[in-house]
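Homework help board

Subject: predicted structure for assignment chain

Our instructor gave us this sequence and asked us to write out the predicted structure in token form, then describe one feature. I got the tokens but I'm not sure how to describe them. Can anyone check?
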Amino acid sequence: MKKGKIVLVPFPFTDLKGSKVRPAIILVNKESDIILAFISTQLDWTEKSDLLIEPSSINGLKKTSLLRLSKIVTLHKNLVLGEIGELDSKFHKTLNNNLKYLFKLN
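My token output:
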């Protein structure tokens, strides 16, 4: 699994009282864990670091979605339920720039 792959995972709620299976993008691939940001079809609550993604045969998404970079989690790789696609290569630079903005790395 590499950066930019879109996978299905049980993404935890921020209050840790449950989770929901949703698509997420791999940001970092470690030996046994992956760091992910979740993808949502809820387009009405955007942040500057979010990335709008239109569905395509490359990414496997069914609806216009937001990559929510401020919603990040580290999970064990065995929690991945499946791979649905990957982020189009044209978005990689924007993804990296948005992460720099979010974490104030500029």
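Reply (TA_rk): Your tokens look well-formed. For the description, you could write something like this. The mean pLDDT is 94. That's the kind of observation they're looking for.
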